[in-house]
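Researcher: Go.
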Amino acid sequence: MNQSVAEPDIKPLTGGALWLAAIILATANFIAVLNMTIANVAVPHIAGALGAASSQGTWVITAYAVGEAITVPLTGWLASRFGSVRVFIASMVLFGIFSIICGISGSIGILVVARVFQGLSGGPLMPLSQTLLMRIFPREKVSAAIGLWSMTTMVAPVIGPILGGYLCDDHSWSWVFFLNAPIAGVSAFFAWNLLKRYTDKLSRSGIDVVGLVLLVVWVGALQLMLDEGKNLDWFSSNTIITLCIVAVVGFIAFLIWEWHEETPVVDLRVFRHRGFSVSVLTISLAFAAFFGVNVLTPLWLQNFMGYTATQAGFATAWTGVSSFLIAPLVAMAAGRFDPRKLVFWGVMWMGGVSFWRAIANTDMAFWDVALPLLVLGFALPFFFIPTTTLALASVEEREMDSAAGLMNFFAHPLRGVRHLAGDYRLG
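Model: Structure:
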């Protein structure tokens, strides 16, 4: 069992303390997602400062992605073994520590290792910040809390390249990592004081070593294949072919093992809930379509229209601005209207704007590029917020951490699609 309850002699959070906890949890999610993109524009600066080739510099991005991809699906198991609050606080503290190590790294090798551990630490922050919100908030306010959390998920990837470009241009690449430390430290302090009253019934089951090894093997191989595919010309490279075979075989073996294991490291049985399965599929397809198109925009602006990385970031940032503004209203609407209708209109809206953007050409002015993206941003919360709420509401409370981890793993907007769309990291 992994059911979180407040200790009998301590009252649950209310009022300002409740919303402060919500802001802290949303901030944790924000910095975890931010670090997937903030270092993208810093790669040339890092490579130059550390005397590394650009191809070596891209491992700074790959290392974080691999570490994060491994621990996100492990969130449920970690929470059941050690408690969701303890895992969240530990992840936040370690995230800050490894961010400092990244910033003071004197060689590309040390930086890459530190980024792996930063990714391992940041992985649980996303799903646990989500499930803890749902546990501390009364049922009637859950949609509003998820709306706040969703805003950080949608805005952070847009802010990342802009902030990273500014820090590298005006300060130093090290500040891309140093920035995380004070945020993580303050968040961990307040989170512990606010959330330590919530305890978990810890699992005493053994460790699924085979499942853990298989997970690391297939996820690591898949992430490396996606990250290095373009550099190695995809399947013309024996390395990519080998990684693909390892990923496929490892994935199949992992599914078979975990489905029959009594105490799996990843609880795949949450997919027996139809609402969860359909919600995850919807989020995955919608975000894949969204990022499959939009991750190309900064690349196109820089390579064919002469935009700098910062200028391209400002042009695409309008999607995050409109999402941020409309998300609170959508969160309130999700509690009053049939969420399936909101999801339908959100996805249709995205499709309509995609047709609008099909007329794009290199003679377009800044606002010709930015305006459709601004309108597009209004659509994102309509499918993301209600679908996220539906997914986690469809599972049992003891399964919530596992469900959130799997949902973030399969549905996270920056996993995989950005690599297939193009080498955006070097834009």
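Model: Confidence is low (pLDDT under 50) at residues 1-8, 416-427.
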